[in-house]
Structure formats: C-alpha cells, structure tokens
Amino acid sequence: MLLRKASLQISSFVSKNCTIMSVETAKKIAAYKAVDTYVKNRHVIGIGSGSTVVYAVERLAERVQNENLNIICIPTSFQAKQLIVANKSRFQVENEMHLSDLENHPEIDVCIDGADEVDCHLNLIKGGGGCLLQEKIIASCSKQFIVIADYRKNSSYLGEQYKNGIPIEVIPMAFVPIKNRIEKRFGGKLELRMAIAKAGPVVTDNGNFILDWINFKHNLKWEDINREIKMIPGVVETGLFIKMATKAYFGMQDGSVKEQDPTLNNSN
Ligand SMILES: O=C(CO)[C@H](O)[C@H](O)COP(=O)(O)O
C-alpha cells in the first residue's frame, strides 16, 4: 500500500500568489533532499519506516542506478525491508543495493527516517507506525541521523500538533501495571493500541504491545522522563528520540525544504 502511495501522482495547486504543495509532495521533496545531501558511494544506510521513507528509498535506488553507487541498506522494520527489496528490483540494482543487518554492519554511516513530530530542539516523537524499537536501535548505531517529514510535523514543542500520543513498546504481560504507573507518576492517559484489520491489539515486529501516552503535559523534561519510563520493568522502548537527530528536513507548502539543526535551536 505504501509503495502504491509513492507512485501516486504528485499534486500541487496554485492559489492566488503561491503554489501550495500537497502533503505527499512535501514528503517527497524532504526525502529527496536528505538522500541527495547525505548518501555517498559505499555508505551503510539505515532505512527508516513509514510513508515518507517510501520516497527516500525510491530516490536511493534511482541514484544507485544513475550514478553507479554501491550501498548497503539496514532496514528498521519489516516494511522497510520490503521497500528495499521492491526498489532493488524496480530499479534493477540487485547487485549494487545490498540488504544487510546489524550483525554484518554494526556501524551505520547515515540513517534516514520519518517522525511523527519534531520540536524546536530536534527532539522527536516516533513510533506512529509501531516501529520505534528497531528505529531507535538503528539510529543509535548511526553516525548521522537525518529526519525527513512534511510541514505538519514541524512543531515548537512535543504534543503541539501530534495528538496520537507518545508510543511506548511494552512486554504484553506488563501493559496494565506500566499504564497505571505512568498515569499515576506523570498524568495523562495511556491507551493500548488496537489493530484495525485484526481483533485485539497491535503486535509489533518484535512481538510486543504499544501503549500510546496521550494528553501528557507539555514542555516536560523529556530526557529525564524518557530515562524514568525506560526504568519501569516491562518497558522495551519509548518513542521519545531525545538528542539523537543530526538534522531535520521539512517539505514545506510553498515547495521549499526547511532545514533544522539542533544547534540552531530554531522555533517556529
Ligand atoms: O516512527 C515511525 C514509524 O514507527 C515513522 O517514522 C513515523 O510514524 C512517521 O511516519 P510517516 O512518514 O508515515 O508520517
């Protein structure tokens, strides 16, 4: 389905004085900018998950084909693995675009991934697609972690625009005590993420459940909170990516790509 999305006709429309890009076009221009800027021949590349990454893998395969690059791709999910396999075949780069893993390539040059929300310090909420654990592992093994997103993800603080909550991956047997502890300690509400085309909860690529923490307070000390939540037995990982990103590219409605750097501390 995500692949089909990538091949959708990219649309834009012209209002009185300016061109308004569609969300899909915004994702695409951010993804292309990141791949064109950061990917070099012989790089080991972490491939994130989600609908924006679809465009990044497409561009990656296109560059491998056009520029005779030789690269190694490390997926962050089942979806990412499928994307790599599909684009190797689509661009006929079977021998130049290699699928690998952390056992063979524990050091990654650059990881390119989407985000659900990015704050002005480049802290992220990730895991809207349920792939946060492998995404965080791969990002942590990468020299550079580049975020690609459309303009809707560009916020001043976490929770400003993204209302689906902070995902927390948990061991299934512990979801009730973890939910109760976090609600009591920090407030807000944790909801067990339910599947859509299956009865019962979402089960991650790692066989775990996801609790989505909604209605949390704003401007919390995310580094401390992340550390404290991770200490709760049964918590596998959180969707809080704090001080991890090197750079974010946002595709904007006017067709430009906005760059955000952690050192700039830009706010909107
Ligand atoms: O963290 C993720 C998946 O676990 C994705 O990167 C995040 O949900 C953004 O996805 P999209 O590019 O579809 O907006």
TrEMBL record:
Q: Which gene encodes it?
A: LOC108733540
Give a yes or no for keyword Acetylation in this entry. no
A GO biological process of this protein is: D-ribose metabolic process
EC numbers, comma separated: 5.3.1.6
Name-wise, this protein is ribose-5-phosphate isomerase
UniProt KW keywords:
Isomerase
Quickly give the catalysed reaction: aldehydo-D-ribose 5-phosphate = D-ribulose 5-phosphate
Isomerase: is it a keyword of this entry? yes
Q: Which GO terms describe its cellular component?
A: cytoplasm
A molecular function (GO) held by this record is:
ribose-5-phosphate isomerase activity
Into which family does the record put it? Belongs to the ribose 5-phosphate isomerase family.
Pathway(s) it belongs to? Carbohydrate degradation; pentose phosphate pathway; D-ribose 5-phosphate from D-ribulose 5-phosphate (non-oxidative stage): step 1/1
